[in-house]
TrEMBL record:
Gene3D superfamilies found in the cross-reference section: paralog of FGE (formylglycine-generating enzyme) (3.90.1580.10)
Region (Disordered): 19-42
Protein name, per record: Sulfatase-modifying factor enzyme-like domain-containing protein
Pfam family, one: FGE-sulfatase
SUPFAM superfamilies, per the entry: C-type lectin-like (SSF56436)
Domain Sulfatase-modifying factor enzyme-like: 70-127
């Protein structure tokens, strides 16, 4: 059974992979989880969220009661989108540009911004 995933991109754009999304195969590629901090972090996430789906990038998806929908527990982070952009050609690179007049430096743990609609849909399908 394929579960539906809905991602919150940045803070205000809701992206869904539902019936109107292009027919794509789910991303079945596995990414090795290195020993050390990354594997310890995944183990901690699994214990903290036993009813959640945790993908190979460590993104935690919680089910929405009464539906087949799952939401990620945080916005799509820079590091999540970066993995997609590095694995695919033709992705618009606006997301790499620094935010003008920002009072902080964006890190891999901040929500990704400056992603166009088509790339956001492609990211969702890639998951």
């Amino acid at each position: 059974m394929m579960k539906k995933l809905i991602l919150l991109i940045a803070v205000t754009t809701l992206v869904g992979c539902g019936k109107k999304a292009p027919q794509t195969q789910p991303n079945t590629k596995t990414r090795p989880v290195p020993a050390g901090p990354a594997s310890a972090e995944l183990s901690t996430l699994e214990k903290k969220h036993p009813d959640a789906f945790i993908n190979s990038m460590g993104m935690v998806f919680r089910p929405v009661p009464g539906t087949e929908v799952q939401f990620c527990i945080w916005e799509t982070r820079v590091k999540d989108y970066k993995a997609y952009a590095e694995a695919n050609t033709g992705v618009d690179d606006n997301w790499k540009r620094p935010i003008r007049n920002s009072p902080f430096t964006q890190t891999d743990m901040h929500p990704v911004v400056m992603v166009n609609w088509n790339d956001a849909q492609a990211f969702c399908a890639w998951l």
